Amino acid sequence: MKRKSIYRGYIGKGYSDQSEFSHRYAAWAQNHRGWAKMKVYNRRMAKRREKRDSKQNINDEMRFNNDEMFV
User: Among residues 20, 9, 18, 19, which one has the least CA distance to residue 46?
Assistant: First the structure.
């Protein structure tokens, strides 16, 4: 049974994010641990995107709070 993806909103829909069909039948997935490597890459990219998004939200909140203080 598959776990729910914790990085669901942060994993892209491009070439790097492969489908389940590619996972089973693609040659790159069968040779040289290709699927495991791509899975690690996707997870790292999702972590980076999540971290960047959270920093952006914190900066926006701080900016908003500073504007309220001076009004």
Answer: 9
d(CA 55, CA 57): 5
> Considering the entire predicted model, what is its pTM?
0.62
**Amino acid, single-letter form, for residue 49:** R
What span, in angstroms and rounded, lies between the C-alpha atoms of 50 and 54? 6
Backbone angles phi, psi at 5, to 5 degrees: -75, 125
pLDDT digits 0-9 by tens, 24-64: 777 766 777 877 888 888 889 889 999 999 999 999 999 98
CA–chain centroid gap for 46, Å, is: 2
Distance from chain centroid for Cα 58 = 19
DSSP 13: S
